[in-house]
Amino acid sequence: MLYALLALAVVAAGLLWRSGLIPLPSSLSKYGGDALWALMVFVGFGFLLPHASKLVVALLALAFSSGVEFSQLYHTPWIDAVRATLPGRLVLGNTFNWPDLPAYVLGIGLGAWAEWRLRE
Description:
Layout: H1 2-19, H2 26-48, H3 54-71, H4 77-83, H5 86-92, H6 100-118
Helix pairs in contact: 1-2, 2-3, 2-6, 3-6
């Protein structure tokens, strides 16, 4: 239940972060949003695998996030049609950008660190 609430909170924070309602420099808006997206993936894996170690959850989240990023190099009409929808764009993105990868590491790392601190 805690992970479900955390996932909702992170999704809300990510949507607010990217909404433009908070005046942020464009790079902070972009890469902070990417870090929050990866944090949500980390929380999602934590929800699905509650007995897995933080390391396993973090590695799965990093593999998933990186896989989604690299999938953006693949373009066919069907996947581009999915990406053209709001849910598709939020989950799959649409353009490969290598600097997103360190942002994912940052978001997942912050999630793992926070979980470690809370469970200490």
